[in-house]
Design brief:
The protein is an all-alpha fold. About 60% of the residues lie in helices and about 0% in strands. The protein contains 5 helices and no strands. Helix 1 packs antiparallel against helix 2 and helix 3 runs antiparallel to helix 4. The longest helix is centred in the middle third of the chain and has 36 residues.
Length: about 180
Amino acid sequence: MSYPPQNPYGPPPGQQPGYGYPQQQPSPYGPYPGGGPVPGMQPQYPVVMPGGVKAARAIMFVLAGLNVIGLIIAVMGLGSVSKAAHHTSPYASSDETSMLSLGKGVLIFVIVLIVIFSAVAITVALQCGNGGKGVRIGAIVFGIANTLVSLMTFPFGLVHTVLGILVIAFMSKDESNRWFVRPRY
């Protein structure tokens, strides 16, 4: 007696096709390679920028604009202090000249700090659309640094304090995290 050849990959002869085999889960990429999402399935990653990230990006642009206004004021102040230093008498006390030199040094430090914060704010805000997890971390660090520096000038830096806290809050949300860890092709 001879037995018919057995197919190790197919159903045994005489049974219903598909009997005993597990059902396959639908592909998250669609019914065929390159296809769209399966109807009824939620996409795992966001496809548009969440509102919190958009708000944080807009706030960083506003902070950069406020910094530019502060930069103009600081440069005008430096010009005034330099002009006052040139008009002092050569017989003036050393206290007066040292105070003017200290004022110039402080204003130069403030100008450099404003330029750095403006550049970081603009760079991070521009990268929010296509950046990775480092952009989110950079935005949170920027918000913390902005808040700490603005607390040193509390009555004048109140707007910067509030906006820095908002950047931290918006970038720390789960939807922001999902946006920055999404796959980018």
